Amino acid sequence: HRKIKTDTAGNTSVITQKLITAVPLHITDEEATKLVFEQLKTDFTSVQTWLRNHLNSFFNDYETGLALAAEVQDLPATEELELATSSNAGNCGFPLAIKYFKEMHGGYTDTSRFPTPVYPDLAARSRISKERLSRYLGIPSRQEAMAFMAYLASHDGRFSESALATAKLLDSKGTRINAVETDAGLTLNVLKERDAGDGWHYVPLIGEVAALVRRWIEVTAPIRKHMRLHGVSGWQNLVIYAGKPLGAPASFVRSSNIHSTFRHFAQKYESRLGHLAEQVTIPRIRSTRGVLVFLESMDLTKMARELGNTNETSLRHYLPDSLWEYFT
């Protein structure tokens, strides 16, 4: 987690890469230290805003899809539908296609395996865009799945990458066992390995974050139903997605290489993230969240509770020795 960084003047410094902001290991001056953490707060807000906007764009497209489907009273015959959803039909084909998938497939089917009038040869060639239709249907891609996990991690440090990747929503019989409504709000349970306690965390969510989880569960219901029907593993997981637009459904496992995939995702948005596009990962978002909790309260116990660590492990794991000594 350490790297030698060279600035434009040729000066070098050793930095820690455990946070979304690169923190120089040698900083001890009080004013310089405060400036570093002001930058940390600014960077964290920028990343959180990017994630929120990305997810809002996805959900807005889903709402647009609902409105488009409502324009269609009755579906035409199969041959007419096939003709009406060719690429030659332009935007006029989308309301019909959305209506078809909702009425005939409950909102989703794997079009890379199962022919439909919209994609009779499975491929999107000479047909309306699968990517656009998938968003109108609210079928998340791997990017949306990672953004969802990262946004949750930015709101509570107990949401580690691996804990969210494998969190179960349903049991083997399809009964809801997670993200249930309680007096404290919508409660999301996650198992965090290497935890100071038994590993289980029961995190109450309210407001915007709770609404986000509810919407996520709503839009993933069609793909979840398809996975269960066709024996695709992972259908019980909270986080599921389609690997390609209207393609095969998928889920994460603890060995999934989310780190590099998330980096590629962030790099696509370099125009919005700037230098952060090369720094941001889900673990770093979570780590930064924990450090900011400490900075706001100067309370190691609160930081430890946020991350599910012991008091000393928390700050010492994420900050260089000079800053550890300064703050303690």
Low-confidence stretches: 1-7, 11-16
Oligomer: single chain
Distance between the termini: 22 Å
Give the overall average pLDDT.
86
Secondary-structure element pattern, one letter each: EEEHHHHHHEEEHEEHHHHHH
Helix content: 40-55%
Radius of gyration: 23 Å
**Spatial arrangement of strands, main beta sheet:** 1-2-3
Label the overall shape.
elongated
Structural classification: mainly alpha
What portion of the residues fall into strands of 2 or more residues? 5-15%
Query: What's the count of strands?
Result: 8
The main pleated sheet reads as: 3 strands, antiparallel
Determine the number of helices (DSSP H or I, runs of at least 4 residues).
13
Describe this structure in words.
It is a single chain. This protein is mainly α and 328 residues long. It has 13 helices and 8 strands. It has a 3-stranded antiparallel beta sheet with strand order 1-2-3, with no helix packed on it. A 3-stranded antiparallel beta sheet has the order 4-5-6. A hairpin with a 6-residue loop joins strand 7 and strand 8. The longest helix is centred in the N-terminal third of the chain and has 41 residues. The radius of gyration is 23 Å and the shape is elongated. The N terminus is likely disordered.
Summarize the structure.
This protein is mainly alpha-helical and 328 residues long.
List the helices and strands and how they pair.
Blueprint: E1 2-6, E2 12-16, E3 23-24, H1 30-70, H2 78-84, H3 93-105, H4 130-136, H5 142-155, H6 161-165, E4 180-182, E5 185-191, E6 200-205, H7 207-229, E7 240-242, E8 249-251, H8 258-267, H9 270-273, H10 282-297, H11 300-307, H12 311-318, H13 321-327
Antiparallel strand pairs: 1-2, 2-3, 4-5, 5-6, 7-8
